[in-house]
Design a protein that fits this description.
2 copies of one chain form a homodimer. Chain A has about 475 residues and is α/β, with parallel strands linked by helices. Chain A is built from 9 helices and 20 strands. The first copy, chain A, folds into 2 domains: about 10-170 and about 280-405, 3-Layer(bba) Sandwich (FAD/NAD(P)-binding domain), CATH 3.50.50.60; about 175-275, FAD/NAD(P)-binding domain. A 5-stranded parallel β-sheet of chain A has the order 3-2-1-7-20, covered by helices on one side. The longest helix of chain A has 18 residues, at about 375-390. Chain A starts with 7 loop residues before the first strand and ends in a 5-residue tail after the last helix. At the A-B interface, strand 8 and strand 9 of A face strand 8 and strand 9 of B. Chains A, B: Pfam families: FMO-like. Chains A, B: It is an enzyme of class 1 (oxidoreductase). Chains A, B: InterPro entries: FAD/NAD-bd_sf, Flavin_mOase, Flavin_mOase-like, FMO-like. Chains A, B: This is Flavin-containing monooxygenase.
């Protein structure tokens, strides 16, 4: 390990899961007086999108509401494939818990590790980053922040900037003929907060990815009258229960009637929920530093190793991938960022950026060959990606886990969903770290469970 | 009249009612080759907040939805006190119409005059202004715009900038204990689109101004089960019908129960509609040019004659007032802006800005003496304000109307509302221009009228 003689100043933007992983990764270096860390968080609390608020639109500081979280959201993948290597669910809750926990459990777990790690002191809450620019002469970043509580603007300078502000906030909102005149309720999944208001209603859901699937299932669970899901390219094709059907792309809306590409239509719609995903929006980054992408890709363009800004590797972006892996992948990304920024490992010298571009292109080429509905292939891709960044890290400190076992867990999860979309969340998984250990199951199957509190969840665990 | 020898370049931001008034005011000057006009409009159509869209949140270009308009909105003041001097409702529709028209009628009227005036050619639609800065040396404005359709950024220079981008878009969202955990539907009036979804629901409405009153009445009309209106300082105190009551300020929300300052509470709430107004947000303006205000005032600070930026009168803001008068006031503001920018009249020479500041302070002092519930006094204030700006204009071209008669119309409108909040919209007013002419009435009283189309409205006119 090469230790540095002067402190590096490091700004992290966002105290969601990625920002928290990054703070923890740097913590030892901070104790060793190697870095001066600050994390700017626009919200009043940490946890990023895992924080629920009933609010939509604008908050009391006039800032856009960040979270797209809704009541009664349960994990849509087994907890075993996202568990932190250094902080297990069992360690946090004191008991082994079922594989698919509700939101509050995940929030408590993520922020529980952050509390245990004593990193709250680095975070400036209610602080929005307004601009980030890079000075090529001094090789420093100029960062403008706004203290929202006191309405003060401050101008700061850093050696490194790490963008961890997420990409599930700004709705991607396609246009459909007549939709702006729809006389019922129309919302994007970003503003969906719970199924209660859709009981006994006829819903149209537009989209064919995780939001569409999960919101459809939640509205089904709580008693929507009918749910029509419209897909653009590729249906999800689960064995949908009665009251749910999938149809091709919406062509137009006239009154309360929707017309689809196959010539069919649905009448008497009460509500349209547009689940067409989110846009990357890093508009506070100077144009020459701004990560842009159309859609949500497993291999983000312009980011070397999926992390470092191709033209200026003093700048990193965390978690910009479409994600199958989440918390554990963020930890590994954060480890590599730390190792590179502190000089523990070095990226190839590449002033012409050619090697970096070539590496990005190779990964992009692989993604482009994959069929959209081949979930296993995307899991292989992201598993290999993680293996690659693990191999770049300082091997003494990188958090490692058995990637083959994780990938096998992903495969089983996909199969469980294909087998039965109503029951996949009731399945217990084996721990990645302790393969003999299987999660307990809940007394109440997910489809009947309307208690998403931590207490309710823990009490529901079936004792053997 | 002093005519100028070179063309002035003028940018108008926004093609809502104010921007359209301004384009029409400049039109003659454009024909005379005195000005080069361009109006930037972020939306795909003109008419500003009068354009209805079912969308909330973000549009298909990723821009925030501008309008706070809802279905079944009817004018909440008599059309006679807003009518254009040079283009009457009767002229537009070919018949005399009742005093309180629905949205579509007003939209058709406003945009009808714009069409007749052939000003569409000046407007660049789907174009967002990203920054406005002023160069003290060249005395020119640098304006950055984004062509949203083609995703192109352009850098332009102008002699004058006129901000007409409105101030009913960014919600003012106060915080209340527990509100972010409310398990029902929570929305700001900006996102309210119609009463249908609130039929048979128990509503809490927070606010005591026009939005609160109108949304409460609309939800009442369409069949909300109960409506509780919570005020901060001053109740509206109309003779509310059954199912509507007013209570003091909300203290906290626990579950579906709201607790108020007088110790009372309301249970089983399905929905909270926050009607606490809007914030001025002109964040694309450089800080030294940016109009800011806390709240919505009849006398906007920093604007000389309620229009010209105190420190740099080459910059104008239109319609930044809290408004009793609207369309006709915008026309007069636009006339003064034209007269000043083209040198037809001159503002007092005031390099130290002292005279301008003094004038603003005098008007502010008058506003500050007024009691919030003294509507007549605010009408007097705005009437006097309009009289003042009329007196500043070129008297040969300023659109004039009888201000005493208009003010008397305001008084009667306030009294009608106090007499009966359910029937005030059924009252016919006399024309300001032709005082012997009284508006017809509708066959269907407003409280029973659920047809807000132009056709329905015109057909409903009672023939004598």
């Amino acid at each position: 390990m090469v230790h540095l003689s002067i402190k590096k100043t490091i700004a992290i933007i966002g105290a969601g899961p990625c920002g928290l992983s990054q703070l923890l990764a740097f913590k030892q270096a901070e104790q060793d007086q190697l870095v001066e860390l600050v994390c700017f968080e626009r919200q009043a609390e940490w946890g990023g999108l895992w924080q629920y608020t009933a609010l939509t639109g604008t908050d009391s500081c006039g800032e856009p509401i960040h979270s797209s979280m809704y009541r009664q959201l349960w994990s849509n993948g087994p907890k075993e494939v996202l568990e932190y290597v250094d902080y297990t669910f069992e360690q946090h809750f004191g008991v082994s818990i079922p594989s698919y926990p509700p939101r509050a459990v995940l929030y408590d777990y993520i922020t529980g590790r952050a509390k245990a790690g004593d990193i709250r002191k680095f975070i400036q809450f209610r602080t929005a980053v307004r601009s980030v620019d890079f000075d090529d002469n001094t090789k420093k970043f100029h960062v403008t922040i706004e203290d929202l509580t006191n309405q003060l603007t401050k101008y700061l300078t850093f050696d490194h900037v790490i963008v961890a502000s997420g990409h599930y906030t700004i709705p991607n909102m396609p246009d459909f003929e007549g939709i702006s005149k729809f006389p019922g309720r129309l919302l994007h999944s970003h503003d969906y907060r719970g199924a209660d208001e859709f009981v006994n209603k006829n819903l149209l859901i537009i989209g064919s990815s995780y939001s569409a699937e999960d919101i459809a299932m939640q509205c089904y669970k709580f008693g929507a009258r009918s749910i029509t899901i419209s897909y653009r390219s590729c249906p999800m094709s689960f064995r949908w229960p009665d009251r749910i059907k999938e149809v091709p792309l919406l062509q137009k809306i006239e009154g309360r009637t929707a017309y689809f590409k196959d010539g069919t239509n649905v009448d008497n719609l009460d509500c349209i929920i547009v689940c067409t995903g989110y846009r990357h929006n890093h508009s506070y980054m100077a144009e020459n530093l701004r990560f842009r992408t159309v859609g949500n890709l497993y291999v983000p363009p312009s980011l070397y190793k999926g992390i470092f800004w191709y033209a200026e590797p003093q700048l990193a972006y965390l978690g910009m991938q479409n994600q199958l892996y989440t918390l554990n992948m963020f930890d590994i990304q954060a480890a590599l960022v730390r190792d590179v920024f502190l000089g523990y490992v070095t990226l190839p010298d590449d002033k012409s950026q050619k090697q970096r571009q070539k590496n990005i292109s190779e990964w992009q080429a692989r993604e482009q060959t994959l069929s959209l509905d081949d979930h296993e292939a995307f899991s292989d891709l992201q598993t290999d990606y993680i293996r690659d960044i693990v191999s770049c890290c300082d091997q003494n400190t990188v958090p490692k886990f058995d990637l083959e076992r994780s990938n096998a867990g992903m495969y089983r999860f996909f199969q469980d969903k294909r087998d039965n979309i109503l029951t996949y969340r009731d399945q217990p998984f084996h721990s990645i770290f302790f393969p003999d250990k299987e999660a307990p199951i809940s007394e109440t199957p997910w489809i009947k469970n309307t208690d998403d509190s931590i207490e309710g969840f823990l009490q529901s665990i079936k004792t053997v």
